[in-house]
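Key result, reporting period 2: structure in, sequence out.
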């Protein structure tokens, strides 16, 4: 009966040792898994931060590309407006020149009219003077000479 109790005690002791060893193994395994879990959490956090950083970089790059595209559009619009302004200036210059030419023509016409009026008056004055001369000559001639006109 002593051997059987010793055997039972030994078995119980072995079982308890095995149980303790299993608990230690499980505790060690749990500790290792906890460490791994923390490492995974840290890696996940780093990945999330990296992902956020990439997203911010992409947003920044998108903003820069958008700004470059807008700048290009504004430059094209500016060039178009400059060309339109240049055409407008050229047209204005042509119209101004044409207007100056028309004014010059009108002034020449007015000058010619004034000259024509003056010439007509001068001709009329000369006719009147000539008529006066003729009439004074005729009145001073002796009557009956019969000059033909």
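The corresponding designed sequence is given below.
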């Amino acid at each position: 009966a002593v051997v059987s109790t010793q055997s039972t005690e030994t078995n119980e002791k072995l079982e308890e040792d095995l149980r303790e060893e299993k608990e230690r193994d499980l505790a060690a395994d749990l500790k290792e898994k906890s460490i791994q879990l923390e490492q995974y959490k840290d890696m996940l956090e780093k990945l999330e931060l990296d992902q956020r950083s990439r997203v911010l970089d992409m947003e920044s790059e998108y903003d820069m590309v958008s700004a470059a595209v807008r700048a290009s559009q504004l430059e094209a619009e500016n060039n178009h407006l400059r060309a339109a302004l240049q055409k407008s200036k050229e047209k204005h210059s042509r119209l101004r020149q044409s207007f100056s030419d028309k004014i010059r023509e009108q002034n020449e016409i007015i000058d010619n009219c004034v000259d024509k009026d003056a010439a007509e008056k001068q001709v009329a004055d000369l006719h009147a003077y000539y008529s006066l001369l003729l009439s004074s000559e005729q009145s001073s001639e002796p009557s009956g000479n019969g000059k033909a006109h």
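The two ends are 195 Å apart (CA to CA). The chain has a mean pLDDT of 88. This case is discussed further under Risks and Mitigation.
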